[in-house]
Amino acid sequence: MSDSAQQGNPEPHGTPQAEGRTLDTMGSGGRKALGNPATRGRTTIADGVVEKIAGLAARDVLGVHAMGTGLSRTFGAVRDRVPGGGRSVARGVKAEVGEVQTALDLDIVVEYGVSIVEVARAVRENVIAAVERMTGLEVVEVNVAVGDVKLPDEDDDDDREQRVQ
Asked: Where is the region Disordered (predicted)?
């Protein structure tokens, strides 16, 4: 301990000493303020989390019939029928997630008769709003690929009766 501290004088940096510990001069109950809690650690968001959020947001748009390419929808229909397989909400969505930004690629099937341009615009807007609101990440791009059109007279994989019950 310095001579000035032994004599009861403040240390050169201006914080009074008592029993070897720094006294609180900010009135925070004996604890030194550590700053903004948001800066005390790191949050990481997995690609799959962003993909699920984007998939649900895209499916909410009127005119989107399904998500995914023909092959992924076929495998998904089989997986949906397997007990415990469940429906993948991230089907048709690929995300690249960085520390502060994300980019998304979506494969969609639209209903016949809707404006594809308007559906794609609405999908982008809905996905960007949902992902940015829920994750805090900046969405730098949303690429929408329309891989098919659902015609009114086509059977839907989800509407078919199961062959085995």
From this structure: 1-40
